[in-house]
Amino acid sequence: MSAVRRTWVISALLAALSGILAAATTLAVAQLVAVVVSPQAAPLIAVGGAFIDATPPALKDFAIATFGTNDKLALLISMTVVIAVVAAVAGVLARRRWVLGAGIVLVLAAVGAAAAATRPSASPFAVVPSIVGGAVGLVALRILLSRLPGRRAPQPSDRDSSDHGLGRRSFLAAALLAAAVAAAAGVGAQLLASATQTVEAARRVLRLPAPFRKAAALPAGVESGVSGSEPFVTPNDGFYRIDTALAIPQVDADSWRLRVHGLVEEEVEISFQDLLDADLVESWVTLTCVSNVVGGDLAGNAKWLGLPIRDLLARARPTADADMVLSTSIDGFTASTPLAALMDDRDALLAIGMNDEPLPAVHGYPVRMVVPGLYGFVSATKWVVDLEVTRYADARAYWTDRGWSEKGPIKTASRIEVPGPFARVPAGQVAIGGTAWAQQRGITAVEVQVDDGDWAPATLAMEASVDTWRQWSFFWDATPGTHQLTVRATDATGEVQTAERLDTVPDGATGQHSISLTVE
Ligand SMILES: Nc1nc2c(c(=O)[nH]1)N[C@H]1C(S)=C(S)[C@@H](COP(=O)(O)O)O[C@H]1N2
Ligand SMILES: [Mo]
Predict the structure, then answer these.
(1) What residue segments make up the domains of the chain, in order of their start?
(2) I need a surface site. Which of 116, 251, 272, 395 has the fewest CB within 10 A?
C-alpha cells in the first residue's frame, strides 16, 4: 500500500471511530438526561419500544422462539450494532462533508426524540434526552474530526514531520476525552438511576395487609415427589416473564390510580391505599402464556393477593350491552377480557401481592390483573391503570391488532419434566414426572405412552384447586434401547388433550409433549 493510501485508510478508520465515539457520547448523555426526565424517554429505550410495538407478529414470534426471554437483550444488542454502523458511516462522510455526517446525527436524534414523544404516557419533556444527547454528540464529532491526523496535507512551511505525530496525539487525546465523557455519563446514569430508584425502595418497605380471605392451605402431596420436577409454587425470581416493556415501568404506588369507566352506571376511581384498605383475597393461580409451545416453560404458579375485580365492577355497575373489559397498562399495553370472566365467582384479581411479597417490578408492581383460566395476553395486565368496560365489537386489544385472538381460554396441556429430553437412564424402574394444567376446569387424568404402546395412567398428585397446575408421576419399567415417551391429560369436562399440533398463533398451541431418551 502506498503511503498516501495508507494515510487515507487510517484517516477513514479514525473518522469511523470518531462517529462511533460521538454516538456513544450521544447515547450516554441522553441516558443521563433521561434519568431526570423519564427512563422511557431514553432514545434507545423509546426506539426499541416503538420497534417492539411495530414488529409484525411473525417476527415477534420468531424473536421469542429464538431468544426466549432474552429477546429484549437481543433487540438492544442489535440496535447498538446498527447504530454503531450508521455512526461509523456518519463519521467517514463528515470527514469530507460535514453536513452529511452532521445530518445523519441529527436524523438519529430526531428519530429518538420522535419515538420518545410518541410512547404511551410520554411527557412533553420526552424529547429532551435525544436533543441534548444529539447536541453533545455533534460537538464531539466536530472536535474529533478537526483533530484527525492527515487531514491537512504536509506544507513546505512545516518545520519537520513531527507535525503529523502531533495531530495523532491530539486526536488520541480527544478520542480518550470523548470515551471518558461517554463512560462517565453512562455510569452516572446508572448511579443516578439507582439512587433515585424510589419505586424499588418503596416496594421493599411495603407491608402487605393480612388477607380478608386466606388461600386454602396446600394439601399434603401436592408435589409428585419426582426429584427434578418444577416446584409446585414457582418462586418469584424464577417466574417466567413476558411483556413488551423494554424498560420496566416505574410506577409510584402513592400516585397510582385505577379508573373504571365506559359502559358503567357509575365511574369508579381507586388509589393504592384504597386497595390496601379493601377486603383482599388470596388465591393460588397458575398463569400461562399463549406463546408457550407444547412442553414449554412459559407457565408459573403463585399465591396472589388482591381485590376481586367483581367487587370493583359491582360498584361501577356495567350496563347490559357491555361484554368486555379493556385493561390498559401504564406503558400502553392493553388486554381484552370477557366481562363475564371478571364478574363470575372465580378469583379474577387486581393483585398487589405475589407469594407473600409485593409484586416484583417485572411482574407489575404495584398492581396487575390475574384472571384464572385465561392466557396472560387477554387478562394479566401488569402495571394496570385503566379498566374500560366496553364491547368486543367496539374495542381491540394490543395483541388482537397483531394477529392474535381477542379471547384466550387456556387449553389443556401436560408436559414431561423428568427425565429431560435425550436423557440416558439405567434400565429398570425410572421415575417420570411432570405437570398438567387446565385452569378453571381442573385435571382429572394424565396418561403416559411408551413408544406405540397403550396409554397407561399416571399417578396424580393432589389438586390444590382447578386454577392451579397439577403434578403427576409415572414409574416406568425401562428396557434398554431408545424410547419415546408421550404424555396427555384429561380435564374435568372429560376432554382428552388432543394430539393435533397447532401453532401458538392465534390462540394457543395444541399437541402432545414427547421426549426421546436412551435406556442403557
Ligand atoms: N403491561 C403489560 N402486561 C402484560 C403483558 C405486557 O406485555 N405488558 N404481557 C402479558 C402476557 S402475554 C403474559 S403471558 C403475562 C405474563 O406475566 P408475567 O410476566 O408476570 O409472567 O403478562 C401479561 N401482562
Ligand atoms: Mo403471554
Answers:
(1) 3-196, 236-402, 413-519
(2) 395
